[in-house]
Every structure is written in C-alpha cells, then in structure tokens.
Amino acid sequence: MDRKKINPTLKLVLEMGPIVVFFVAYLKLREKLFVIGGTEYEGFILVTAGFIPLMILSSAILYKLTGHLSKMQVATLVLVVIFGGLSVWLNDDRFFKMKPTMIYLLFAGALGVGLLRGQSYLKYVMEEMLPLQDEGWLVLTRRLTAFFFILAVLNELIWRTQTTDTWVYFKTFGLSAAIFVFFMTQGKVFQTYAIPEDHPAEAEDL
Fold first, then answer.
1. Which helix (H) or strand (E) segment is 36 a member of?
2. What is the pLDDT of residues 52-65, one digit of tens each?
3. What is the model's pTM?
4. What's in the GO CC field (predicted)?
5. Closest CA to 61 of 24, 17, 19
6. Over the stretch 78-132, which tens digit does the pLDDT of each residue have?
7. Contact 76, 146 (CB under 8 A)
8. Is it the case that residue 206 has pLDDT exceeding 60?
9. Are residues 203 and 126 in the same domain?
10. How many domains does one find in the chain?
11. Which of 31, 61, 92 is a domain's end point?
12. Is the same domain home to 76 and 104?
C-alpha cells in the first residue's frame, strides 16, 4: 500500500491521543480500587487495560489513513500489548512500567547493530524528514543509540525508586521532552551534514 499524506494535526492526535487519554484517566482513577471477578484492581491496572485497545485502534486508523506504520511504531505497539497485557493478566503494574525500558533498549540495540555493520538504520526511518550525508547519519545514530540507552536506565531508576505518580508524569512528559530536547541540541549536526538543495543527484544516491 502506498503511503498517503494526512493532516498533521490528525496524525499528531492519533499518535499522542492514547498517551493523553492514559494520563487523564490515571489522574481520575489512581486512588480507586475496582473488584472484578472477586479480584481487586488498582486504577492504574484498569487504565492500562484501556490503553492497550486504544493504542491498537489508533495505530490501525493511522495505517488505514497513511498506508504505513514505521518499524518503531510497530515495535512500540507490540511491546505495549505484551507488557501491558502481562500487567493486566497478572495484576502487576511492574510489567507496564518496564515497557519504556524494553522499547529504548530495543531501539538502542537495533541502531547499535547497524553501527557495527557500518550502517545507520536511523537513516531508513527518518531520511524523508532529515536529508543528511551518510557521515551525518552515523554521527546522529551513535548519539541517539547512547541517548536511548540512557533513557532505558533512567526509566528503570524512576519506576523502581519513585512513586507511580512520579513515573506516570515522567513517562507522559519527561520522556517526550527529553527526546525533543535531544533533537533540538543536534542543530550542529544538521547544519554540518545537510545535503545542499542544489545537489539533488547526491540526495537521490544517499
């Protein structure tokens, strides 16, 4: 299926909507207990249970509208289903809290494998958004690999040592802000290794 362009606002809603809903629902249900089938569930577990189908639905709509999901989006969805499902099934919030750790370790590992082969897998994901020379992609990939590993370690430290409230705020705002800041601080790389607009042939070769 060919990729299709959709309204950027709609795309943002589909990508970030489930996270926003998760956060709002958690704030409303975090102090409540629910008895289902004779078993007590905290609000966090019920919110997680609702987050899983919401992620599946938003991803399906995004794929239907664009004809494409990135490998990162697919990997994230799979891990949400696996670790979120384990948390609900076992009534244990630790599995869902581990999810960001697994996601960032997976991304760091995948990018690291590419670097060992002298390639930038990041280029295949973001080439349309950031036209860079090959050397620039390698520089950015090395930095992002280290950054993902740091985020994985940080997530482990937060959920293991802090309250669930702190972790939810960290996951909702902290991780997103950290990624935004990371790319904002890479301006020198983008400037140094940008492909000149008057060299279309070079851009096609990369």
1. strand 33-36
2. 999 999 999 999 99
3. 0.84
4. plasma membrane
5. 17
6. 999 999 999 999 999 999 999 999 999 999 999 999 999 999 988 887 766 778 8
7. no
8. no
9. yes
10. 2
11. 92
12. no
H or E element, residue 33: strand 33-36
Give the 3-state secondary structure of residue 120.
coil
Half-sphere exposure of 142 (CA within 13 A, CB side): 10
| Residue 162 CB neighbours (<10 A) | 12
Show Cβ contacts of residue 45 under 8 Å, excluding neighbours closer than 6 positions: 87, 88, 91, 93
pLDDT of 1:
47
Which range of residues forms the domain containing residue 41?
1-92
Dist. CA 197–CA 64, nearest whole Å: 33
Picking from 97, 101, 99, the residue whose alpha carbon sits closest to that of residue 151 is 101
Cα–Cα distance for residue pair 130/141, rounded to 1 Å: 13
Identity of the amino acid at 171: K
The pair of three-digit structure tokens given for residue 191, joined into one six-digit string: 């400037």
